[in-house]
Amino acid sequence: MKRRPNKFVLAAIGVVHLTVVTLTWRDIRRRPDDQIRGSKKLWRVLSAANTTGSGAYWLLGRRRARS
Known about the structure:
The protein is an all-alpha fold. The chain is built from three helices and no strands. Helix 1 (7-30) packs parallel to helix 3 and helix 2 packs antiparallel against helix 3.
């Protein structure tokens, strides 16, 4: 018998994804170009595609602020 995904689980995953993307896009918008590896447009597309793209941005896409 084939199991259908639980609607609550799918909704929760959707909310988490939208929250992460919102936080990622806000950081991209506020961060100067020289503190981002690659283009802002590329990171927006990757982060919108799936949550892994947002994770990659937070781990690899941001440069440290120069002191």
